[in-house]
Amino acid sequence: MAGHFEATPGGGAAVALDEVEIAILRSLAVQLLELIGPGDQPAEGEDPLAALFAEGPSEPPTDPALARLFPEAYGDEDSELRAASAEFRRFTENDLRTRKRDDALAVVRTLDGLTIAGDGGAVLELTGDECRNWLGALNDLRLTIGTRLEVSDDDEGEVGSLYRLPDSDPRKPMVMAYLWLGALQETLVETLMP
Questions:
Q1: Alpha-helix runs per DSSP H in the chain
Q2: Do residues 142 and 69 make contact, with C-beta atoms less than 8 angstroms apart?
């Protein structure tokens, strides 16, 4: 089980992690939460249903990583599509942010709930719902790191060159995290496939 998820009875998954891996995953999830930002909670005395109908932003984020997490719905080729994207964003981005925040919080909470064994490691056991949260968070982390590394979806050659970065390259730790998260994500997906 070391380093990859394995299926558990009942539709969950488990992975053995050492203290360093736990710390890295937790730190990345917290950084993702900070990037996404706090949720809009109803003010004291405010009707909680009002939050359900609150409109979100209509402009895409300026941060490239956030723009990748919250992409344009219809592209931006012409003004009609830009208007449709703005309208779509206005009514969907708040919910999408909440879901991404919930996924990252689930990662932090499950990691915080681990009991570290005498050897400095722990086995993380996830339920089916927690697996879905983890998949969402792992995907968001990879998208964010990939954006920071300027890796595009259609640039497979660039991903291959990441493996060959010299240890002296300052991007090396981010690259290692990006590749490791991809391996975790892949094995988690495999455990959930019928």
A1: 19-36, 48-52, 64-69, 79-112, 128-148, 156-162, 172-192
A2: no
The DSSP code for 150 is T
- Tell me phi and psi for residue 115, to 5 degrees: -105, 115
DSSP state of 2: B
Paired residues of 14 in beta bridges: 6, 125
Report how far residue 127's alpha carbon sits from residue 8's, in angstroms, rounded to the nearest whole number. Answer: 9
Q: For residue 127, how far is the Cα from the chain centroid? A: 18
Nearest to 138 by CA among 32, 34, 6, 61: 32
Distance of CA 104 to the CA centre of its chain: 6
pLDDT in tens, 23-75: 999 999 999 999 999 866 555 666 666 665 667 777 888 999 999 999 988 87
15, burial (CB in 10 Å: exposed 0-12, middle 13-18, buried 19+): buried
For residue 43, give the DSSP letter: P
Sheet strands (E) in 6-159: 6-8, 12-18, 121-126
Please state which of the ranges 53-57, 119-123, 128-132, 169-173 shows the lowest mean pLDDT: 53-57
Query: Which ranges of 53-78 would DSSP assign to H, the alpha helix?
Result: 64-69
Q: In angstroms, rounded to a whole number, what is the distance separating the alpha carbons of residues 15 and 158?
A: 29
Q: What percent of the chain has pLDDT over 70?
A: 85
- Cα distances (Å, whole numbers) of residue 77 to 89, 117, 157: 16, 55, 27
